[in-house]
Inverse folding.
């Protein structure tokens, strides 16, 4: 049994690597995979997909075909869409959808052709474990982040949400575009660029999948400023703390 933690960018899983033992770095498909052990108890592979659905799908396929991974978690940041999903909150996906999939009129909008579905469900046990771990972090946030960072990113008011996560090959950085997504997909909590592609690959192979996202921006006209700052200051630590709580539970 081997678990993979994927993120698009190194900042999104900064800190996790230092917790692995017996680490070796393996190159495959133009990427470096960090293979190690967690607390001497389980095999863990850390992977960086880079940005976008195709890059994420290549990485997920390599993890399964070459590294024999049997469970996968995507972790990183996302733009908040749902009411009350604000910067510093955490979203654990219940299901994932590709918001830019549109083969209409051949298939209903968002439906993935020949899969007869527009959503891929996350593994319920993994999602429940990550949700509990995120709630644990929320209660102990003051122990892990300095007051100025907590203030700047609203971490003292961190909310943990569970629901629909949407992915597409667009960085959403305009309030009217975010609003259009909300109107089209009112259940969407947050938007990013990878998870639904990985969910589809995992569905194809029968590999349990979960996705965890910290909200870096509101997918509005300020998103391109908020995103990089949050990435450096908070993203990696959130992933590390939540994954650590989940695996040690
Ligand atoms: N990841 C983080 N913020 C995002 C946004 N606004 N759009 C797409 N992906 C994101």
């Amino acid at each position: 049994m081997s678990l993979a933690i994927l993120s698009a960018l190194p900042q999104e899983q900064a800190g996790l690597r230092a917790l692995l033992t017996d680490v070796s770095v393996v190159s495959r498909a133009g990427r470096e995979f960090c293979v190690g052990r967690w607390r001497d108890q389980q095999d863990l592979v850390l992977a960086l997909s880079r940005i976008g659905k195709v890059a994420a799908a290549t990485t997920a396929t390599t993890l399964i075909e070459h590294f024999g991974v049997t469970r996968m978690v995507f972790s990183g940041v996302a733009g908040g869409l749902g009411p009350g999903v604000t910067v510093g909150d955490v979203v654990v996906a219940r299901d994932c959808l590709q918001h830019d999939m549109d083969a209409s009129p051949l298939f209903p909008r968002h439906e993935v052709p020949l899969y007869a579905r527009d959503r891929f469900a996350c593994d319920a046990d993994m999602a429940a474990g990550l949700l509990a771990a995120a709630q644990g972090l929320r209660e102990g946030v003051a122990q892990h982040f300095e007051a100025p960072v907590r203030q700047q990113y609203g971490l003292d008011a961190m909310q943990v949400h569970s629901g629909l996560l949407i992915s597409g090959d667009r960085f959403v950085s305009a309030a009217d575009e975010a609003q259009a997504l909300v109107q089209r997909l009112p259940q969407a909590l947050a938007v990013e660029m990878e998870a639904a592609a990985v969910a589809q690959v995992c569905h194809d192979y029968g590999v349990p999948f979960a996705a965890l996202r910290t909200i870096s921006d509101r997918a509005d006209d300020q998103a391109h400023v908020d995103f990089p700052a949050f990435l450096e200051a908070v993203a990696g630590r959130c992933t590390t703390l939540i994954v650590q709580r989940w695996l040690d539970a």
The radius of gyration is 17 Å. Helices lie at 53-65, 124-139, 141-144, 147-152, 175-184, 195-205, 223-248. Residues 223-248 form the longest helix (26 residues).
